[in-house]
Design goal:
single chain, 360 residues, alpha/beta, disordered N terminus, 11 strands, 10 helices
C-alpha cells in the first residue's frame, strides 16, 4: 500500500486566504438567516387551537348553585342568531370519561343550534362525585342519582328563567351514562322536560348499585319493565307522558342492544298504553355505513316513541366527530335525528321555572 503523503506547510498567503474564506462563509450564513427572518416576519403564526364550537357564543366554565349549596359545572352555547324571545333549549349529558367540551365537539350539536336557533346546555359531572365522571344513573336513590337529576333540573329551570327560554320546549339527551341520567331527569321532572333522547343507554330502573349497573348494561333486565320505570318516576309522568327517542349501535360491546329494545317497550307503555297499537318500521340507508332500522309508535300522526337501531355502530355517538373519543363517523347524524324529533314535541302543561337559584 502506498504510504500517505506528508502534509505540506501552509504559506502565509494560504492562511490568510483560508481566514478570509471563513469570514465570508459566516457572513453569507448570517445574511441568509436575516433574509429568512424577514420573509417570515409578516406571516401569521401557525394556530394550534382546536376548531371553533360553532359560530355563536361558547361559555365553557359556568357554575350553578342551588338553594342547598350544591354546585354543578356546565357549559352554555348561544346560537349565532338567536330568536328575540322564547328560544328552545337542548340539555346534553356526556358519558363516562367525557367532559362537556369533548361532548360538544364530538356531537356537533352546536352547529345544529346555529341552524335551529336553540340554546344548548352541557352539565358536567364532578370527579369528586364520581371519579370517571359517570352520572350515577345506577344509583337512582335521592342521595345519589336522584339528587344529581334534581340538581340538573334546578339548573335548567334557572337558565330558562334567566334567559327567557321557552318553558314548553325544554329537551334533554345523553350518551351512555348520560342517557341513563337524562331518563332520570325527564321521569323525575316530567312537567319540565318536553322530550327525551337516549343514545346507547341502559334500561330504566333496573340497577341500584355499580355492580348491578354493569349487569344491566351487559344483558338488559330480566324484571317486568314498566314497574321498573314507575319505581324511579314522578307519578305525574303517567298523565303527562314522555316522548322518547332511543338510538343504539347494533355492534355495541358495552351496552347490549337488548337495552334499547327494552327502553322502547318501557316508553311505549308510558306513552301509548294500548297494546294493540302497531309500530311503523322502515330501513333507511340500506347498503351504506349509515344504515339503520327505525321503529315508530304514533299517537295520531305524531311520533311519540322512536327506536333507531344503527347497523354498523359500536359504543359511540352516531355520525359524530371520529377524532373525539366515543364518537363515530359511521351511522346517521344522531344530533340531526335528535333535533328533528324534538322539533315535533312540546310540553303544553309546562311548570313555571323556579326562581331564587343562582347561576354564574
Amino acid at each position: 500500500m502506498a504510504a500517505p503523503k506528508a502534509a505540506r506547510k501552509r504559506t502565509v498567503s494560504a492562511r490568510k486566504a483560508a481566514v478570509a474564506a471563513g469570514h465570508a462563509a459566516k457572513a453569507a450564513k448570517a445574511a441568509n438567516a436575516a433574509i429568512a427572518a424577514k420573509a417570515t416576519s409578516g406571516a401569521a403564526p401557525r394556530s394550534t387551537a382546536a376548531p371553533p364550537l360553532g359560530n355563536g357564543r361558547w361559555e365553557a366554565s359556568r357554575q350553578f348553585s342551588d338553594g342547598a349549596g350544591r354546585r354543578l359545572a356546565f357549559a352554555r352555547y348561544t346560537p349565532a342568531a338567536p330568536p328575540a324571545t322564547g328560544m328552545p333549549v337542548v340539555v346534553m349529558l356526556h358519558g363516562c370519561r367525557q367532559t362537556s367540551v369533548a361532548f360538544a365537539r364530538g356531537t356537533r350539536m352546536n352547529q345544529w343550534a346555529d341552524a335551529g336557533g336553540f340554546m344548548v346546555l352541557y352539565p358536567q359531572q364532578s370527579m369528586a362525585r364520581q371519579v370517571q365522571r359517570c352520572w350515577r344513573w345506577f344509583q337512582p336513590d335521592a342521595h345519589h342519582g336522584g339528587a344529581e337529576a334534581d340538581l340538573i333540573a334546578a339548573m335548567i329551570q334557572a337558565e330558562v328563567a334567566r334567559h327567557g327560554l321557552d318553558p314548553e320546549r325544554v329537551y334533554i339527551a345523553g350518551l351512555s351514562a348520560g342517557a341513563g341520567m337524562a331518563a332520570l331527569v325527564a321521569l323525575r321532572h316530567p312537567g319540565l322536560i318536553a322530550a327525551l333522547a337516549m343514545h346507547s343507554g341502559p334500561v330504566v330502573g333496573d340497577a341500584h348499585n355499580a355492580a348491578s349497573g354493569i349487569g344491566t348494561m351487559r344483558r338488559g333486565s330480566i324484571k317486568p319493565l314498566f314497574p321498573l320505570l314507575e319505581s324511579v318516576a314522578d307519578p305525574a309522568v303517567l298523565q303527562l307522558g314522555m316522548p322518547a327517542l332511543i338510538l343504539q349501535g347494533q355492534l355495541d360491546p358495552a351496552v347490549a342492544p337488548r337495552n334499547a329494545r327494552q327502553l322502547f317497550e318501557q316508553f311505549r307503555a308510558l306513552n301509548l298504553p294500548h297494546p294493540e297499537d302497531v309500530p311503523v318500521e322502515r330501513v333507511l340507508g340500506l347498503g351504506t355505513e349509515k344504515a339503520y332500522r327505525r321503529v315508530d309508535m304514533l299517537r295520531g300522526r305524531k311520533t311519540v316513541v322512536r327506536l333507531c337501531e344503527i347497523t354498523r355502530l359500536e359504543h359511540a355517538w352516531s355520525g359524530g366527530d371520529p377524532a373525539v373519543r366515543y364518537h363515530a363517523r359511521s351511522g346517521p347524524d344522531a344530533s340531526a335525528l335528535i333535533w328533528r324529533f324534538f322539533q315535533g314535541q312540546r310540553r303544553v302543561a309546562a311548570v313555571p321555572a323556579e326562581l331564587g337559584q343562582a347561576a354564574t
